[in-house]
């Protein structure tokens, strides 16, 4: 007995009725899966919000001086606005030059520290790219000389990028004292872990035929990487590297908060002394720097991509 004998094919109106029934059942199952997924997603969001104390109720001081219980989000928003308003300097059109000069009154020191911040980011990127690039090939499963090598390198890359940059900075400040070197090492190791991961994923998606050709011609593992893999992954590596340099500029302005050099030490001083307008001035300096670097790196990235195509 065949399947056709059990469920003989239908024609005409019965076939259309069967189609409509099957379509309705499939649509019902799809809607059920969609609503189930949506319910699970909403439950996870609510659980995360609860663990993050988004629904916390706390005591706040009312305008008349009394204390009362309020939901923390609407109670905290006015204080957030108050804090941000303190960072905005008073700028008048009639005395704009003098007001800007008063806002950026430490501009000479800040520019020196900004230059130091960029140098920290540059050196950290060099360290991270060098380490990540070299480790990415044995970390890729399709290029690794041995599975054990891949396992150890992948664990190291995970450790390097899992430990936050601030924690690395605290460790190196303890070991090598305060200064830019601690910032370079902290950001460089973290960049090595992140870039090594990204580079290895790019390596795992390459075309293996050029490498097989090099191996068939008697090339070593290093020859296969040099002449078969590197030309394929170079545009992506340049793109990730430029993006990482932009990220490192922001990071180097933060690690200075724990004594690792750069603008971070000024941010720490401004926050400690409650110099709110200095904070906004430093933020503007970092923002403009990141915008300029993003613009330049974008142009360079497009040039590289156009040259490859």
TrEMBL record:
Residues 114-297 form the ABC transmembrane type-1 domain. The keyword Heme does not apply. The chain crosses the membrane at residues 34-52, 113-135, 166-189, 279-296. It comes from the Bacteria. InterPro entries: MetI-like, MetI-like_sf, PhnE/PtxC. Pfam families: BPD_transp_1. GO terms for molecular function: ABC-type phosphonate transporter activity. It is a multi-pass membrane protein. GO terms for cellular component: plasma membrane. It is found in: Cell membrane. Belongs to the binding-protein-dependent transport system permease family. This is Phosphonate ABC transporter, permease protein PhnE. It comes from Paracoccus suum.
């Amino acid at each position: 007995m065949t399947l056709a004998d059990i469920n003989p094919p239908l024609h005409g109106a019965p076939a259309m009725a069967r189609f409509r029934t099957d379509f309705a059942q499939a649509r019902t199952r799809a809607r059920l899966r969609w609503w189930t997924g949506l319910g699970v997603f909403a439950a996870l969001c609510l659980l995360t919000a609860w663990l993050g104390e988004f629904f916390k109720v706390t005591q706040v001081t009312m305008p008349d001086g009394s204390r009362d219980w309020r939901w923390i989000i609407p109670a905290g928003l006015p204080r957030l606005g108050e804090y941000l308003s303190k960072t905005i300097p008073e700028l008048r059109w009639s005395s704009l030059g003098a007001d800007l000069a008063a806002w950026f009154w430490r501009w000479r020191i800040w520019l020196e520290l900004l230059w130091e911040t960029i140098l920290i980011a540059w050196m950290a990127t060099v360290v991270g790219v060098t380490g990540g690039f070299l480790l990415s090939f044995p970390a890729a499963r399709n290029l690794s000389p041995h599975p054990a090598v891949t396992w150890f390198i992948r664990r190291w890359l995970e450790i390097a990028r899992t430990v936050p940059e601030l924690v690395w900075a605290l460790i190196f400040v303890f070991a090598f004292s305060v200064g830019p070197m601690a910032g370079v090492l902290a950001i460089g190791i973290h960049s090595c872990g992140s870039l090594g991961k990204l580079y290895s994923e790019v390596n795992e998606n390459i075309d293996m035929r050029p490498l097989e050709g090099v191996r068939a011609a008697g090339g070593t593992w290093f020859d296969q990487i040099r002449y078969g893999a590197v030309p394929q992954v170079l545009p992506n590596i340049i793109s990730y590297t430029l993006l990482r340099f932009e990220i490192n500029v922001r990071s180097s302005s933060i690690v200075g908060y724990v004594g690792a050099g750069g603008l971070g030490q000024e941010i720490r001083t401004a926050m400690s002394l409650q110099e709110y307008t200095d904070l906004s001035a430093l933020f503007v300096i970092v923002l403009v720097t990141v915008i300029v670097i993003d613009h330049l790196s974008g142009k360079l990235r497009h040039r590289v991509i156009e040259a490859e195509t």
